[in-house]
Prior knowledge:
This protein is mostly helical. It is built from twelve helices and no strands. It has helices at 12-35, 52-56, 61-94, 100-106, 109-112, 115-128, 135-158, 163-171, 176-204, 208-213, 221-228, 235-265. α3 (61-94) packs parallel to α7 (135-158) and α9 (176-204) runs antiparallel to α12. It is globular and about 70 Å long. The two termini are 35 Å apart.
Amino acid sequence: MKERRKVREFKPGSVFYACLIYLFLYLPIFVVIAFSFNTSKMNITFKGFTLEWYGRMFENRQLMQSFFNTIIVAGVSTVLSVIIGTLCALGLYKFEFKLKNVLSSSLYIPIVIPELVFAIALLIFFTSLNVSMNMATLIISHVTFSMPFVVITVRARLAGFDRSIEEAARDLGANELRTFLRVTLPMISPGVLSGGMLALTMSLDDVVVSFFTAGPESTTLPLKILGMVRKGVSPDVNALSTLMIVGTIVILLTSTMIQGRLERKL
């Protein structure tokens, strides 16, 4: 006899509890979006609806420059983190060598240690080399703390990888590069994409590491907003934040669709 599936009873208390959690998580985001249309310059009360700040946002050169710096740093560091992290994960998965366990464990150090300690360590490292803080040091720092997330996600994907598929490709005459591009990479691409999204997210909202490793000409948007908090955040910052939220949702939906297609192909 087939076992009957247990039908869960509808509990209003559970629904109410779930709604409170979602409200707690997303209410600040809705407030930022709402106040981007506020006619008042003070983000205290909502006085009226306007689209003025979406136009004046582009007139704020310092704000837009910090936004472009953020996009450049996040984009470059994400690409580098994905490339280095994927190769590192493949190396740890395929090869056996001395101190492999030590190297694998050391990848968790940037994740486990406090971010402030990690930022100070990077600052000491750059100053000991007499390197002035600029966009390059900021990108290197972001790659350093983003790359371990890529390695972890790709290694999780490689855990269920069937090596016989690579061996079959090699038996059919494909060289190592062709096997990697046509067989291995498509198989682990969902893990690579997930790691890239994590690296991008970590880079976009980083404050502590950027504060210690950014130069005067490489101020990112989180640092710019942090400096504006004492005097008050203007509504054009809310407008830019709203556009970034919309862009993030579009990127997230696109990556989810791509990852779903890749999963179906596999």
